[in-house]
Amino acid sequence: MEQGWRGVEIVEVGPRDGLQNEKRVLPTAVKVAYVERAIAAGLTRIEVAAFARPDRVPQMADAEEVLRGVPRSADVRYVALVLNGRGLDRALALEDARPHEINYVVVASDEFSRRNQGVSTADSLKAFRSVADRARDAGFFVTLTVAAAFGCPFTGPVSVDRVRSIVEDAGPVDEICLADTIGVGVPVQVSELADAVRPVAPGAPLRAHFHNTRNTGYANAMAAVASGFTALDASIGGIGGCPFAPAATGNIATEDLAYLLRQSRVPSGVDVAAAAAAGLWIGAELGLAQVPAQLGRAGDFPGDL
After folding, report:
1. Which of 16, 74, 259, 272 is the most exposed place for a label (fewest CB within 10 A)?
2. Per-residue b/e over 84-105, b at no fewer than 16 CB within 10 Å?
3. Which residues are within 8 A (CB) of 68 and not within 5 positions of it... i.e. 6 or more apart?
4. Cα torsion at 246, 247, 251, 255 (round to 10°)?
5. How do 101-107 and 77-82 pair as beta strands?
6. How much is the CA Rg of the chain, to the nearest whole Å?
7. Could you give the CA distance from residue 242 to residue 228 in angstroms, rounded to a whole number?
């Protein structure tokens, strides 16, 4: 990797996307401890909760309690997933314990959107525009995540034109996140999507969300770096997945991604060893025989290249 590449921000999504697909529902105190370990490892932007229906995503039922319990500092920003106006109302009601950012998901395929959120993509976009206006007026940073941007588990490939159209119709946003929700994407799609989306969302930084279902997540992450994405989602331990996608596996692991970036001379600010230790810890809390992340087992390799 050539010298001079700018740094990339890792957005820690383990406390939300990581935990939401795990069978064991953790106590609020353990979730807060997970966030604290992420901060200790150098993560400063952390998705900590989802304002989702507790009957559908019981792992996120204590979203308010988590946001009230996590430590607050000027260096750390918290993100909450919002799926509709009711979710935004819950975020607004927290007052002094509000998240700093709202992440709103619009699913690229109608079938997946209906199964995930109960509405078509067009209806989801309409709701997003309303929520985004309210959220920005309230001072939230707003990210639009286009889920299943690389493919749908029910209807197959998703076209670049489809993703471009969604972003174009979304209206003003602070950030665009392109998500390979089911882990089917490959690096060429990363660059193609970036080239398609930028002209219709000028000035909006790009963020990427990859799953490693087919062992392409880390290659996609480096393709995103090469394509100028400024942020990459990952979860400590590599846990997680989408509860509404068949055979979904975990996110790319924070510790493995941080190692890859560091050894490629792309700064992320993450302490690889601390993140790996946190990955082993959360795996034990979840009762997992081992987490998907590799660094906790293989160990760090000392020294930058």
Report:
1. 74
2. beebbebbeeeeebbbebbbbb
3. 94, 97
4. 170
5. parallel
6. 18
7. 26
Q: Measured between alpha carbons, how far is 97 from 224 in angstroms, rounded to an integer?
A: 33
pLDDT tens column, 58-101 = 999 999 999 999 999 999 999 999 999 999 999 999 999 999 99
Domain ranges, ordered by start, for the chain: 9-298
The residues annotated as belonging to the active site are: 242
Residue holding tokens 């082993």?
280
pTM > 0.90: yes
- 8 A C-beta contact, residue 110 and residue 120: yes
DSSP 215: S
Which DSSP string corresponds to 258-284? Answer: HHHHHHTT------HHHHHHHHHHHHH
Rounded Cα–Cα distance for residues 166 and 122 (Å): 8
Opening angle at CA 299, ends 293 and 302, nearest 5: 130
Residue type, 282: I
Sequence-distant (6+) residues with CB within 8 A of 30 are: 285
Question: For residue 96, what are the contacts with CB-CB under 8 A and spacing of at least 6?
Answer: none
Closest CA to 30 of 69, 81, 75: 69
* Torsion sign across C-alpha atoms 233, 239, 245, 247: positive
* Rounded CA separation 185/179 (Å): 9
Both tokens of 269, joined, read 């600010």
Q: How far apart are CA 144 and CA 152, in angstroms?
A: 18
Domain range 9-298, CATH class: alpha beta
Q: Check residue 6 and give its pLDDT.
A: 75
303, 39 in Cβ contact below 8 A? no
